[in-house]
Amino acid sequence: MTGDWLREARARLRERFEPGCWLALVVRAIEPRTDPTLGERTPAHFLVGAWSPGDDGRCARLPEFAAIASPDATRALRELFVHLPADATVHLTDEEHADPALLARMVLVCDGHLEPYQRDALEAFERAARAKLERTLAERYTDRDSGFLRFRDRLPRG
Question: What's the pTM?
């Protein structure tokens, strides 16, 4: 990307998913904080990842890459585009359509340069994302069938 990378990136972003587009997620995973022991301020960190378009129009389950970026969303977007092919068009999606916990796990497994605070914060982020998924599954999907429950309630107990 040239010096005007943001203009180039905007030209490659697509508001709606279309065939041939990469699907990408940029999510804030670590809040800025001040280290209580050292007094040092650490910036926000974002996870970025992207799924390549398959020949059949579907994206694979696993992204092509996952990375961590800081200190802000603009830098995270730049990190995303560094990893993409130069001519790739991109549709940014949200956590409803891509798995942020998967990106966190990939960075935790693959990035040997994480500081201890980053590792701890990413593990907490992953746990929170998995817990949110569990709540969503419990709310959205159930084996409870009201007809069966009425039938079961009429059965003699014994």
Answer: 0.83
